[in-house]
Specification:
568 residues, alpha/beta
């Protein structure tokens, strides 16, 4: 083949930029995999993915994401969530799985990711055993079978779930089913050898004491406060101390009124084993509380901690308390209620605990109106043994939020004027022109280098140079090319600096305009503008907004412009 002249070669178009694929390997394993657990193990899935990558050097491996013990019937999995965040940030743009069942077994949800979400994000999906690659034009035949496979996976997990549920139900009815150690009632230990509960002596003594105190008419709150003052570990903290859970939530947990109430109503302490208090109707549905009539009760299944007489006496006390409450006259509620707006936003500045709302309703004809207030959960839940009271009315918090946002609105008006002024500044216009020209020049050099590298390969194939010369020259070109890419990226960032700084400020201004339109703050605006609210023991309020200082990026940009001007 005749060699093209240099003149002819210079007219050849720039080779199209080939997209670099940055891959994440995703693996999932759960009980629904049944007999295929070894074949589908996390390690085996990873090996298959890594082997695939060795055969496809055009794809660069970035990270591994795994979910062990998570069903494929929903996508609420930590590994999958982390992978989605990396896809959104651009850290990866390619997902590799062993087969489509690893991504998910729910037909509708899995199809949504395969056919809409991933393509919309520009994500390449590769399912190795299915022979599917979303970027391969020859994958059409495989793509046609994907929906069928997803339906089969959906059916498979439901079938497996039905068999597992059926087996567990049979064991429950015969009294041969034992839940995990973390689900065994306080005061008992799990004994898998005899398929029963053994009495755990130390907490069992606490259980007896709770029933005795309640039988003597002591309130649930008073019982919880007494146990907390004496430093007796609650069920969650006991599991933490024994290493049965590593969750830091239970490290400083205390007795709650609700915990005591549930214990005094639980027939497990007279030897009855109960299953099915909480369960789902079908796979994929949320679990829900069941009425006592729906429970599966196995009587005399284990040694009781308390007598039937003491249990019945406590139920009588509980019933009398309920009857007494029915006779109370309904109290008038507060005129305003900001609980939904402030939900999850208010925290204790000292211990970091969330501060949740409580309602103090005035009695009929009372002079003091009803109120909603916030207090430190750590103080409240510990029976006032930890932290301190941070009592603060909801109106005080909302007034502080309103005042701060009103100040921000005025600042936003000033910021809009500043933005318009910055855009017209001669030094800014000059700087933008210079960085734009520099970016264009570097881009042209980079394209010329790509042409040189292409011509070098032509010279090798036409034997104008040998392989040794080719490797040497290519190495030099590659170094220059990578340097140009780096310079081009930096010049592009410099060019975009103004837009980035302006967008930060404009986004903040738009949020403030949303607030300005409303007669009062609603939940949507609260989420847009306020990240968290901290209250200390002196009732001082510190509000953290959802954005950093909007002035700072613009000030940094102007400093850079000024610096370039003096440098020039």
């Amino acid at each position: 083949m005749a060699r093209k002249s240099r003149a002819e070669q210079n007219t050849v178009g720039t080779p199209s930029n080939i997209m670099e694929y940055l891959a994440g390997l995703y693996q999932r394993l759960s009980v629904e995999d049944g007999d295929d657990i070894e074949q589908n193990s996390i390690g085996n899935q990873k090996k298959i993915g890594l082997h695939y990558l060795t055969e496809h050097p055009d794809i660069r491996f970035v990270d591994t994401y795994a979910d062990h013990g998570y069903t494929g019937m929903n996508f609420k999995r930590p590994g999958f969530a982390r992978m989605l965040e990396d896809l959104k940030s651009g850290r990866i743009n390619c997902v590799i799985i062993k087969d489509i069942s690893r991504l998910g077994r729910h037909f509708v949800l899995t199809s949504e990711y395969v056919e809409r979400i991933f393509p919309g994000m520009g994500v390449r999906l590769i399912s190795i055993n299915d022979g599917y690659d979303s970027m391969d034009e020859h994958s059409d035949a495989s793509a046609l079978t994907m929906p069928l496979k997803m339906v089969m996976n959906d059916y498979y997990v439901k079938d497996i779930s039905k068999k597992i549920r059926s087996g567990i139900s049979a064991k429950m009815s015969s009294g041969t089913y034992l839940p995990s150690s973390s689900s065994v009632p306080y005061g008992y230990l799990r004994n898998p050898e005899t398929v029963t509960y053994d009495i755990d002596q130390e907490p069992a003594a606490v259980v007896r004491r709770i029933f005795v105190m309640r039988s003597e008419g002591m309130s649930f709150t008073s019982i919880a406060r007494t146990l907390n003052k004496e430093g007796i570990p609650c069920p969650g903290k006991l599991r933490y101390l024994r290493g049965m859970t590593k969750s830091e939530v239970y490290k400083d947990a205390g007795w709650l009124r609700g915990t005591v109430r549930k214990m005094t109503q639980d027939p497990v302490y007279i030897g009855n084993r109960i299953h099915g208090r909480v369960k789902r109707d079908k796979i994929g549905m949320e679990k829900r509380q069941r009425s006592a009539e729906e429970w599966n009760v196995i009587e005399n299944a284990h040694t009781p901690i308390i007598s039937k007489e003491l249990f019945d006496r406590v139920q009588e006390v509980n019933e009398k308390e309920l009857e007494k409450r029915k006779s109370f006259k309904e109290r008038v509620g507060p005129d305003t209620d900001y609980r939904e707006i402030l939900r999850g936003k208010v925290f204790c500045a000292e211990c970091g605990s969330q501060m949740t709302a409580a309602k103090g309703c005035a009695r009929p004809n009372a002079k003091t109106p009803s109120r909603i207030f916030y207090d430190c959960n750590g103080y409240r839940d510990s029976g006032h043994t930890r932290c301190s009271s941070h009592y603060i009315r909801q109106e005080t918090i909302m007034n502080a939020v309103n005042n701060l946002l009103n100040q921000q609105v005025q600042t936003g008006v000033d910021m809009e004027r500043l933005i318009e002024d910055v855009k017209k500044m001669p030094k800014v216009l000059s700087y933008q022109e210079n960085v734009g020209q520099r970016h264009a020049n570097i881009s042209m050099k980079r394209r010329n280098m790509e042409l040189k590298m292409e011509r070098l390969l032509v010279d090798l194939t036409e034997h104008l140079i040998d392989k040794k010369e080719y490797e040497y020259i290519k190495g030099r070109y590659q170094e220059q090319y990578e340097q140009l890419l780096e310079e081009e990226a930096k010049a592009g960032a410099d060019k975009a600096n103004l837009d980035t700084a302006l967008q930060t400020a404009l986004k903040w201004i738009e949020r403030l305009k949303e607030y300005r339109k409303l007669p009062f703050i609603d939940r949507r605006v609260m989420d847009l503008l306020v990240d968290s609210i901290y209250v200390n023991h002196e009732k001082q309020i510190r509000i953290h907004l959802t954005y950093a200082d909007p002035y700072q990026p613009l000030m940094d940009y102007l400093d850079k412009v000024e610096g370039m001007k003096h440098a020039g």
